[in-house]
Design goal:
5-stranded parallel sheet
Length: 214
Amino acid sequence: MGDKRIRVLLVDDHQVVRRGLRTFLEIQDDIEVVGEAADGAEGVARTEELKPDVVLMDVKMPGTDGIEALRKLRELANPAKVLIVTSFTEQRTVVPALRAGASGYVYKDVDPEALAGAIRSVHAGHVLLQPEVAVALLSQEEQSGGTGRGTSLTEREREVLGLIADGRSNREIARALVLSEKTVKTHVSNILMKLDLADRTQAALWAVRNGLTN
């Protein structure tokens, strides 16, 4: 597969978890584990060093936890997609991680094939949200008074936003709307700026809330 493999970094303070993840992922033809880290600070440093496509990040770790690591990666404008792999199902744990920039999350007892599928999905630019977490995020948006924005969006931007909410990557949006990927990226940047949103996850939730999904 050569450079077409998805480069993955494992960040978890339990060595046995990292070993289990590595054992399974190394048998996938299109996935390559490029490194490991035992806490969030090391995870940030290794992400900057190794430039993985996807980071599998635990939430609860000693020292720098996964949420703080996510915030640091955002500050650094690191392009790696972060998939939270956690044993914590509480919304108070998962929701902040998504708000900090995670592309989605899975539980540590996830079926191995489903984990591989999740990695491929976030690498393609999709957002993975469990229904109960999406509801929680939307509820928080309501409480923060986030409605009423979006009147300045152009018709094309609204089309792009609807496709983001459908889980489409920039490449897929470009194909659907017969645009270049560069043009789609520009539209996405304008959408985030106009709606005062931090990332595609928040954009997708805004679109769901405002009825822009198909």
